[in-house]
Amino acid sequence: MKATDQDKIKKPLSIEEKIKRRNFISFGAFIALGGGAAAGWKWLLNSPEENAGITGGAKAPLRKALNKTEVFFRNFFSNNHLVKTYPKERAAKTVRVNSLIGINNDQDFDIGTWKLEVKLNRLESLKIGIDEIKALPKTELIFSFKCVEGWDQIQHWGGVKMSEFLSHHKLDNLAKKNYMGLGTPNGDYYVGLERDSVLHPQTILAYEMNGKPITNDHGAPLRLIIPVKYGIKNLKRIGVMSFSDQRPKDYWAEQGYDYYSGL
Ligand SMILES: Nc1nc2c(c(=O)[nH]1)N[C@H]1C(S)=C(S)[C@@H](COP(=O)(O)O)O[C@H]1N2
Ligand SMILES: [Mo]
């Protein structure tokens, strides 16, 4: 019988032909997906940057996504959810030092005269000394501290619960505002925190690390430990505390980082 074109088509494909065909299909898919990704990337690069302000530097669509994630996570946030804690023996003996903004450039700083300034309004503030803070009930916390740069470490901190500090100083009403702002004494590092995280039962104003007064590099004499947030929000060496309904300025949010920075 004479071979016809039809026979040729029906003949099963050889292994090599199958491989060729698959290569062709996957290469095609690769080009199509790659093209799509490149187009998406170009769209993102050409989209406008958000207006500089409390947050800045991110492309507008990315900020929209960040803000949506915040709304999503805030719905699940509960002050009854505690972060995992560990036995004391697990805590690092050598605690990592990260950045020192607002600390290593403050020549005028004098720990002997330091007081925490709590702004009550535009004109008035409270000035609270470290002994007054240490006189309040002490809470210890051993938890895994997480930095956005990709490290984490089990650390042991001691201090007063933020919520107890606030009610002791009759600041509960002010603390009902949406945000707390904290800054170093020289104002070089500052963070904004939303109320729920501030009042979380594991948020502490810490004056001890591994059972001893906090060292300079870790934020002596008083720092924030807020385990529901990444390290960037755990401000070292607090100088000023304030309350507001609008987002306070935030050092890393101004550089494009997520304002919420929750875990
Ligand atoms: N004043 C001040 N607080 C700060 C920082 C800083 O540079 N200056 N860095 C933050 C970051 S990014 C992290 S991860 C933690 C690190 O705290 P540690 O140095 O005690 O490990 O502090 C936070 N608080
Ligand atoms: Mo960090």
Present the secondary structure layout.
Layout: H1 5-10, H2 15-46, H3 60-76, E1 116-119, E2 125-128, H4 130-134, E3 139-146, E4 152-161, H5 162-168, E5 179-183, E6 190-194, H6 195-198, E7 204-209, E8 212-213, E9 223-225, E10 240-244, H7 251-254
Parallel strand pairs: 1-10
Antiparallel strand pairs: 1-2, 3-4, 4-7, 5-6, 5-10, 7-8, 7-9
The structure holds ligand MTE and molybdenum atom.
Could you explain how this protein is built, in words?
The strands form 2 sheets. The chain has a 5-stranded mixed beta sheet with strand order 2-1-10-5-6. Strands 3, 4, 7, 8 and 9 form a 5-stranded antiparallel beta sheet that branches. Helices cover 29% and strands 20% of the residues. It has 7 helices and 10 strands. With 263 residues, it is an alpha+beta fold. The structure holds the ligand Nc1nc2c(c(=O)[nH]1)N[C@H]1C(S)=C(S)[C@@H](COP(=O)(O)O)O[C@H]1N2 and molybdenum atom. The site of ligand MTE has 18 residues, from loops.
